[in-house]
Amino acid sequence: MVYVILLGVIIFFAVHFYRKAKRRKVKPFPEHWHGLLLENVLYYRNLSGEKQVVFQQRMMQFLSEVYIDGVKLELEELDKILIAASSVIPVFGFKEWHYTNLSGILLYPDNFNEDMQFGNRDKSRNIGGIVGNGRFEKQMILSKKALYHGFNNKSDKSNTGIHEFVHLIDKLDDRADGVPERLLQHQYAIPWLNLIHNEMEAINDNHSDIRKYGSTNQAEFFAVASEYFFERPDLLKRKHPELYEMLVKCFNQQIA
Is 21's pLDDT higher than 50? Predict the structure, then answer.
């Protein structure tokens, strides 16, 4: 069964590369998406009207460059909206951005395990999203359940969609090491590493409200801290002012 699923995923991505070779035009932003964004994406709701228009344009640009397909589910408009919003939020502080290390996204109905299975009989289904490596390079798999939870729960400092796109940003220098060289100026690299290690130590000592998963390694700390930054900026600024200011520099966004 595992091999059948893996074969299906490989075939899917092969089709993606063929389709990706054909240039896609940027479609106009559907007007009714504005209401869906206001209802479901707090970050968008907090933007000025002018910046909301820019956000819409950036979403449509992303959707013209990356294919999204559902696995055992029919894609809905809100699925695409939340994925596109997840892609735009971390890089909205930059005038232009293209995820050159992403070609396609698979949306699963639920969390999955390391074998990418998500059925009720499959154990250890605790993965909400992954950025592919090796034969799955330039691909992302997301759980619809985890994606929606990230935007529905506005108090838990977590957002799976943003988390995975931050990993992509981290990987732009070919290494997911928690040091986003494309974003962080060279003079901040050492202070950033020192800050990471101090914060990870605090997590391990139960002296931090940053999610435990952030102590896994530097890459996961960067992604978890970024979720916190975009989901609860005011709280992060109050409890971790140095980390907040470093992420402001990193993402070029002052959001608290």
Answer: no
